[in-house]
Amino acid sequence: MADIKVRDVAKKTVKAIDKSAIATERFKDTIVHTKERAENATNEDGNINEYGSSKIGFVSNRTVDESVHQFNKQGKKSLIQTKDNIQKSKIKIKAFKEKRLAKKTIKGTTKGAVKNTKTAIKTSKEVAKNTKRVAQQSVKASQRAIKLARETAKATARGVKVAVKATISTVKAIIAGTKALIAALVAGGWVAVVAVIIICLVGLLCSSIFGIFFSSEDTGGSKTMNTVVNEINQEMANKITNIQNNNIYDDYKIDSDRAEWKEVLAVYTVKISKGTNEVDVITLDDNKIAILKEVFWDMNTISSEVKTEKVKNEDGIEEDKKILHIKITSKSPDDMASQYHFNTAQKNQLAELMSEEYANLWSSAIYGSPLGSPNIVQIALSQVGNVGGQPYWSWYGFNSRVEWCACFVSWVANQAGYIESNIIPKFAGCQNGIDWFKAMGQWKEKGYIPREGDIIFFDWEVDGSVNHVGIVEKVENGKVYTVEGNSTDDMCRQKEYDINSKVIFGYGTPAY
Fold first, then answer.
1. Is the CB of residue 402 less than 8 Å from the CB of residue 498?
2. What predicted TM-score, i.e. pTM, was given to this entire model?
3. pLDDT of residue 112
4. Which residues pair with 468 in a beta bridge?
5. Angle CA(454)–CA(460)–CA(463) in degrees, nearest 5?
6. Taking the domains of the chain in order of start, what are their residue ranges?
7. What DSSP string runs through 77-134?
8. Mind giving me the DSSP string for 352-383?
9. Which residue numbers in the chain have pLDDT < 70?
10. What is the pLDDT at residue 405?
11. pLDDT at 318
């Protein structure tokens, strides 16, 4: 028996269907099946075998021809279909890939878009939240800034009161810090804005008649007001000395009713302003100094005469003596308003500047020392050259001249704010001052090395009775330098003593 051909078992792999291959296999199966039938018939009957063989031959040939025909037909058809299928498969695969790519792209894009949208929403919420918070902070800051501006503006409208007092000692620092504040403003922040608002307000004050309170601040490039005040004081002292040198006399008397410096400066400021508030009275040039001196000498006049008078000597006997009388008379601010023909606006300005509200502020312009400054010496030095002591004893409450050295010390202390703060007592008698310092535990006997601003007491006869008082300016090279009222020639003078001088009685040491 011939070997039966068995088809190989296909591997368990997925293959594309080939119709031409299937037709060939069927054809082979038909031949095998016919041959098997023929062999079975031969075993049963030889004749039949011959018939079968011839029949098989015929059938086989025919079948083969038909099979070949069918094979060719099916092969061609299958080949065409296979090509078509391959082409379609390529198209479908391409379409599938494109579809899958598109789907993946859409999915990725959608997912990314969703993610981005979520992030955007989250960011938007955070931005909105931050914006709301910043807006709230901005509103609060704006309200604070507006409130501050209104309060400051009110203070300005009332005449600058506390605002000026608080800023007088810081004008120099404000000017120096302007650039830094501008930089801070550029960087942002309401603090800088408020600071700039304050700067603007101070600027408005400085460019108005109230700028006179800042005139002793050293801004560079020109003289300060306190320097010019000292120069004019010295001019007056020199004039009095010249009168004394040009007259023959046995004794002299000085009757002083000199105008106060705040009155002089108020009139000067109004004269400069011409009734407008937009004026620079902070800086001083030669023209302004000339105007200030003109105002001072228009308000203060010095006259003198020598009289022969009967004066009792030490024994109580009357003698004829030549007495030089020096008299200083003054004009009031109202007198000057008439003399200078001030208009209504100028008169209103003058009344404003002379208000008691600003009494303490004048010390800055006159003495170059802010209210409450520990540099009491600076104020004392500004009075050097003053003759007669009228501003001091009249301030104390006396109606006529008294020995005014203690009145001078008390007046200077008051200008610095030390009497009100109970740092220095108000006293007209030297012993009263000593008793106060001893009671406060602030007394030092002679032999102590004093410091600037200490109060120095003298005993001219070295008999234990105190006669005189002054203010310590400095100590250098074994000497103590002082500023004293009611000194030689009834004047405010600078003096010096050996630190171990017998006439020094002791020192009051204020707790500055």
1. no
2. 0.50
3. 55
4. 458
5. 105
6. 19-114, 238-358, 369-512
7. HHHHHHHHHHHHHHHHHHHHHHHHHHHHHHHHHHHHHHHHHHHHHHHHHHHHHHHHHH
8. HHTSGGGTTTHHHHHHS--TT-S-HHHHHHTT
9. 1-207, 219-221, 314, 360, 369-374
10. 96
11. 85
Give the burial class of 424: count Cβ atoms within 10 A of its Cβ; 0-12 exposed, 13-18 middle, 19 or more buried: buried
351-364 exposure pattern, b = at least 16 Cβ within 10 A, e = fewer: ebbbeeebebbbbb
**pLDDT at position 223:** 86
- Tell me the residue ranges of DSSP E strands in 257-299: none
Task: Kindly give the pairing relationship between strand 251-256 and strand 300-312.
Answer: unpaired
Burial (CB count within 10 angstroms: exposed 0-12, middle 13-18, buried 19+), residue 153: middle
Joined together, the tokens standing for residue 2 give: 């011939």
- Distance (Å, whole) CA 426 – CA 509: 15
Q: State the Cα–Cα distance between residues 362 and 380, nearest whole angstrom.
A: 15
Confidence (pLDDT) at 511:
83
CA dist., res. 438 & res. 69, Å (int): 149
Six token digits for residue 279: 């004026």
Return the CATH fold of 369-512: endopeptidase fold (from Nostoc punctiforme) (3.90.1720)
Look at strands 455-458 and 479-484 and give their pairing: unpaired
Cβ atoms within 10 Å, residue 340 = 15
Take residue 440 and report the two structure tokens written for it: 């406060």
The span from the CA of 367 to the CA of 90, in Å, is 106
What is the C-alpha radius of gyration for the chain, rounded to an integer number of angstroms?
Answer: 59
- Most distant CA pair in the chain: distance in Å? 207
Categorise residue 217: left if φ over 0, alpha if ψ from -120 to 50, beta otherwise.
Answer: beta
Judge whether 226 and 379 are in contact, CB under 8 Å: no
Q: What amino acid is encoded at 435 in this protein?
A: D
In this prediction, residue 162 carries a pLDDT of 44
- Which amino acid, one-letter code, is at 438? K
β-pairing, 468-476 with 479-484?
A: antiparallel
